[in-house]
Amino acid sequence: MPVREPNANLPRTVEEYRSSSSDLRTPRVTSPTTTASPPTEPLSIVTERPPWRHTFIALAVPNFRIWTYGNLIAMTAGWIQRIAQDWLVLELTGSATKVGITVAMQFAPMLFFGLLGGVLVDRVSKRMLLMFTQSAFAILSLVLAALTLSGNVDAWMVWGIAFLTGLVTVIDNPARQVIVTELVGQKNLRNAISINSSVFQLGGMIGPAIAGVLLMTVGAGWAFAINGAACIMVVIMLSLLRTSQMTRMAAPPRVPGQLRAGLAYAVGKPTIIWPVLLAAVFAVFGLTMPVLLASFADNVFHVGAGGYGLFNSMVAVGALAGALLSTRRASIRLRTIVIGVGITGLLQATTGLMSGVAPFALMLITVGMASLLFLTASNSLIQMSSNIGVRGRVMSLYVLVLLGGQAIGGPLMGWIITTFGAHIGMMVSGGMPALAAAVACVVLARRGHLTLQVRVRHHVPTVHIEHRPAV
């Protein structure tokens, strides 16, 4: 099946439909057809699982090692703040819907301005951008800490600071994604992406647990103060990076329509647009865990702030396991992402049927593992499919749907929980991504002329996807 070129002024990579199917492997990035974007080095296609000693091979790069330590501090403290922030609003208002508004305020800026952040990231030093964003996070966290510790905090103040934090996130998130390429180069990029995800989930495992202890002992104010101090530490660690050892790419030329060209580039590549679409649905429904878990902890199981921290930690335990497993992948395929979001949705919907604390917590581990495998695969495939010259804009689109979707999903899920209850909310949050995966399977099968065939071998039936030539 011939591949159409959506934009002749932007480079393409050879991971396009190799057999007009969804069975797409990790791509090689080729040189651009014009100078619209700089060329990239070839990316190796891994066909075998790496040896165990290479599970964390990207950490052998000194700059990436420093970045990882700082990132772990930032992620842990960030999760502490997010858990404390949501719980503080729940205490102040007693409403799950108001917690959803908090989530919306933090992620709405990404929905409206996320793509502009990607244009900036493509043009400016990622290290300097991150030093700026972490400094801004520190100031905002310390202000919220002062308000809370003084007893003068109200929900609208939390919402305002959450919105300002979201504005900074517009720049911080795509810069955080793209800087990995500059730190490790192309050779160990996929391993570095998986480690980055592992660090995020390790922070997500430690942070909520610490937040639960802090909320029960000293209150939310000190949690915000800890995040402010951690952001200052990250700025110091970013200053320690050896810029002479970073892989720098020339900024794209200043020409009109860069944002539109970046969108056309993403839309024209199946290995970018399909993960983005599935991530968007998952973000709106599946990534509303803070709202769901706050309601389960407060209204269903009555386990308070400690239980809320425990539930978040269970998700993070599974996600950390998924992140570590993702470093062992031999290849990344589009069908892996479609199946992954489907399985994640089914597991999340099943969690909504649990009536006891123990089975509920155990199911959260499986949800965390499945969701991280899906999200890491999506992140990796999108980055590996995009030329470095437009990667900031491409990743800003991905981050836009991932975080902006939560701005829509937070209030929506809060309303569903308030109207129908937490159990129904959890089943909806998983059922919609599962439905999206089913639709994606049908569309990809029709476009790729695929058929399902059942073969029996040694009396065991197995299902195979076969290519059907066009008539």
UniProtKB/TrEMBL annotation:
Annotated TM spans: 56-80, 100-121, 128-149, 155-172, 193-216, 222-241, 272-293, 305-325, 337-354, 360-382, 394-417, 423-445
A single cellular component GO annotation: plasma membrane
Amino acid composition bias (Low complexity), ranges on this chain: 27-44
Location relative to the cell: Cell membrane
Residue ranges of every copy of the Major facilitator superfamily (MFS) profile domain listed in the record: 55-448
Keyword Cell membrane: yes
Subcellular location, principal: membrane
Superkingdom per UniProt: Bacteria
Keyword annotations from UniProtKB, A to Z: Cell membrane, Membrane, Transmembrane, Transmembrane helix, Transport
PROSITE patterns linked to this entry: MFS
Gene Ontology molecular function, alphabetical: transmembrane transporter activity
Record region (Disordered): 1-44
InterPro entries recorded: MFS_dom (IPR020846), MFS_trans_sf (IPR036259), TM_effector (IPR010290)
Membrane topology value: Multi-pass membrane protein
PANTHER family: INTEGRAL MEMBRANE EFFLUX PROTEIN-RELATED, STAPHYLOFERRIN A TRANSPORTER
Name the UniProt record assigns to this protein: MFS transporter
Source organism (scientific name): Cryobacterium tagatosivorans
Phylogenetic classification of the source organism: Bacteria, Bacillati, Actinomycetota, Actinomycetes, Micrococcales
